[in-house]
Each structure stands twice: as C-alpha cells, then as structure tokens.
Specification:
Blueprint lengths: L1 E6 L2 H10 L7 E6 L9 E2 L7 H10 L4 E4 L3 H5 L1 H6 L9 E2 L7 H4 L1 H10 L7 E5 L6 H5 L6 E5 L8 E4 L2 H12 L9 E5 L5 E9 L4 E3 L4 E2 L2 E3 L3 E4 L4 E4 L6 H21 L6 E10 L2 E8 L7 H4 L7 H10 L13 E8 L22 E5 L2 E4 L2 E4 L3 E9 L2 H14 L16
The structure holds adenosine monophosphate (AMP) and glycine.
Length: 422
C-alpha cells in the first residue's frame, strides 16, 4: 500500500511518523513535506492546491490512498477533483468534499448548520453588503466584547474581537469593503462566549466515527496568552477538564448531532472533523469546525494513539470504520513549538539548525525546515514541535523543554508556559 500525505508542516510530519509504523504500508510520499518527512518517506515537489500536479504524483507513484493535511485543498475541492476524474476516482481521499468542507470554509454555513441542528454555539447573524446597515442594530443587542468574523478563509486573521461598538461597526464595514478580499463578502457577528477552549477530533467514514484524543493548543505568541495570534505555540493532551462527564456532553450535544446533520443533508463526510470548542461553565459550545486535523494538536494527539493509525485511514477509505479499533495511550503528551525570531511578524529563513542529534526522549516534528546539502535550515515561522510523553503534564513538558534548550538556531523562540492554565 502506497500512501501520499499532502502538506508540509508538523501535522504532516506527525502523520508520516505514525503511518511509517504501520506494517500495512509499503511506501510513504509527502507532498511537498519538509526535512523531517524526508527521513520517513519520499518528499514530492508539488503544490497541494495544484490538482493536476497532485494527479501526476498520484499516478506516477502508484499511490493507493491520499491523506489531505491542510484545509485549502479541501475547500478548493480536491476530493471532488478525484471523484470526477476517471483515472483517480477509485483512489480514496481522506478529507471531505467541497460541500462538506464548507464547515470550515464558510463560517456562515457552519453557523447556520449548527443552529439548524440545535448544536450549542454563540448566537449570531450574518451580513453582506446589501444588509450592512442592519449590522449596527444587531451589534447594539449584544454585550461587549464584539466578535466579528469574515465568512471565508483569511489565513487565520479573519476573526476580530473588539470592546468598542464603534470599532466593531468599522470592522464590519472594512471586511465587507474587501479587507480580506472575497473571504469578507459575508461577515458573521456573534455573541462573545467566556470560557476555556479545547480541540476535539473525530475520524469518520460518513457513517460512524472514532473519537481521537482531545487537546488544548496555545495560539498567542506571548507567555500568559498575550500578544499576536500564531498558528499555535504548543499543545497538551489529554485536557484535564475534559473528563467523562464533559466528554459525554460533547458526544451527545455536539458530535452526534453533527453526524446526524451531515447525514440528513445528504453529505457523506470522509475524513477528520476538528471541533473547536469552548467550555462555558461545564457546558461545551462550538466556536468553529475545521475539516482537518489541527497543528500543533496533531503533534500531541497522534503520539497518544497506540493502535495502527493506518487501520483507521483504511476504515474511512473502505467505509467500514465501525469494525476498526483505536487504542489510546493514557499518558500525557505535550508539545512545545520552536519558532523563528520575529514570528508571527516578519522573520528570516535559512538559519542553520544544530542539536538535532542531542535531543533524547522527545520526537521532534519538523514544521518549517528544509535540507540544504547535508544541513537542515529553517524555512518557516514555526520550525519544530518538540513532543514528549510523561505520566504527568508537567513531566511531559519538562522533557520537551529540556530538548528545546538543546536545539539551536539563530533567533529561536518558544513559549515557556505551555499548559499554564490547566
Ligand atoms: P475561529 O477562527 O472561529 O476559531 O476564532 C478564532 C478565535 O477567536 C477562537 O479560537 C477564539 O479564541 C476566539 N473566538 C471566536 N469566536 C468566539 C466567541 N463567540 N466567543 C469568544 N471567543 C471567540
Ligand atoms: N491549532 C489550530 C488549528 O490547527 O487550526
């Protein structure tokens, strides 16, 4: 069995690392991958958003299954591209079709899906240019702070939270007037929910699902959750407050009605669903859906899966996920993201990385790295996720921090307080 993983970050390295342990897999290809994935399989020079390039790679390397890491190819319709191509239609894609990927690609679609299916979420209203003048009236029915979201994908920048109603009105106008291009043609305004966030994941073949470990990620650049938003600075799993009572609520109030809603709407969802949740006084609410695994959440949840992960992937491909098993490691896994100096603003690339051979007791998942001759150099803002196991969260973090100290490149930065709020 040959498998192609699309993407180039820590999530894709974690997927490749886990799938490389499966006896059922012959060859792993990663497109385009990074320096870390090149140790586990063959990196292919391709752009996951260029479907003809993906097609050539799939046919040229006799790929049997494709796992899609990032959201862009999904919302652009890579699944549909495969279904509609005679030479590709029998090659399963792990990732939803374009219509189902709207759960992530359109916040307006996600919100109306949530409300139609009675799934707990913040009250909201959507506006476009023709209804722009009604936005102020809706804002005045809400208490501050005000949450304003561009409908479409806006590189993680499309959510703005402000305290002042006039700033909120101006933000709505700016988005509708093209601040985020097409992504802001519609704008969602919603009630602010106060609580602690967590990420819950399932894998589904469209009929049944398996719950994967949950995680908490740390999005802000600075200690104590301060400063600018990033792709994620670290994560831990399990999440202590996500106990059985809480997770039963998540299943009954959120996952089950999501599965039923998809099925009622004639959508056969094959892939991962990432529920971005917030715990408000012991009750889970959906902040957002994503049509993929999280990053850096993957770097803590995948190491907690003890059973063969390919078995689940195959279950999705064959539509028999129900008879597959998943075994979870009870231990904690923590990951600390090492980033380039200046990230998430401007930063330099091409810094030589040292100390990769010194780290012990952790797995180093590469994110923005590449090989230059026999050197490994930085090639992105997020460079490595240092993941470790431990019988406690503190123990796992201790190992990651020890190894983060041994890895070196000019300008390296990491948050030293991952898990501080748990
Ligand atoms: P999203 O891209 O929808 O996940 O939003 C980005 C971040 O904004 C979330 O991770 C939350 O921290 C915050 N956020 C979004 N919606 C809300 C809300 N209704 N109440 C409070 N915080 C929110
Ligand atoms: N860590 C959040 C995400 O992957 O979107």
């Amino acid at each position: 069995m040959n498998i192609l993983i699309l993407g180039s970050g820590g999530r894709e390295h974690a997927l490749a690392w886990k799938l490389a342990q499966s006896k059922k897999i012959d060859r792993i290809f990663i497109g385009p991958g990074n320096a870390g994935t090149s140790e586990l399989g063959t990196n292919l020079k391709l752009n996951p958003e260029n479907f003809p390039e993906v097609k050539d790679a799939v046919l040229g390397n006799r790929i049997d299954i494709v796992v899609v890491g990032p959201e862009a190819p999904l919302t652009m319709g890579i699944h549909d591209f495969f279904t509609n191509d005679l030479t590709l239609r029998d090659i399963p894609i792990i990732g939803p079709d374009k219509s189902a990927a709207r759960l992530e690609g359109s916040k307006d679609f996600a919100k109306s899906f949530l409300i139609r299916n009675n799934i707990p979420t913040a009250a909201y209203k959507s506006f476009d240019k023709s209804t722009m003048n009604e936005a102020s009236a809706f804002l005045s029915t809400l208490d501050p702070p005000y949450v304003i979201k561009a409908d479409g994908l806006a590189a993680g920048k499309g959510v703005v939270i402000v305290d002042d109603i006039h700033d909120a009105e101006n933000e709505v106008k700016a988005m509708l007037n093209g601040k985020f291009g097409h992504a802001g043609e519609k704008v969602v305004i919603e009630q602010f929910l106060k609580g602690i966030e967590l990420s819950v994941f399932i894998i589904t073949d469209g009929f049944t699902y398996k719950l994967l470990p949950e995680a908490k990620d740390y999005k802000k650049i600075g200690a104590g959750d301060t400063g600018l938003n990033t792709g994620g600075m670290g994560a831990v799993s399990p999440v202590p407050f996500a106990d059985k009572i809480f997770m039963d609520k998540v299943k009954q109030r959120i996952i089950d009605p999501t599965m039923k809603g998809l099925s009622d709407e004639g959508i056969v969802y094959k892939g991962f669903i990432f529920f971005g949740l917030i715990n408000v006084g012991g009750n889970p609410y959906v902040i957002e859906y994503n049509a993929r695994l999280g990053d850096p959440e993957s770097e803590v949840i995948i190491p907690r899966i003890k059973s063969d992960f390919f078995d689940l992937i195959e279950g999705v491909a064959m539509g028999d996920l129900q008879r597959r098993i998943i075994e979870i490691d009870e231990r904690f896994v923590a990951t600390v993201m090492m980033v380039s100096g200046g990230y998430p603003g401007t930063y330099e690339k091409g810094k030589t990385i040292q100390g990769l051979d010194l780290a012990t007791g952790s797995v180093i998942f590469h994110s923005g790295t590449k090989k230059e001759g026999d050197k490994v150099v930085t090639s992105g803002g997020r460079v490595f996720a240092v993941s470790s196991w431990g019988s406690s969260m503190k123990g796992a973090l201790g190992t990651s921090y020890r190894n983060a100290g041994l890895l070196d490149f000019e300008g390296k930065y990491y948050r030293s307080d991952i898990g501080f709020d748990l």
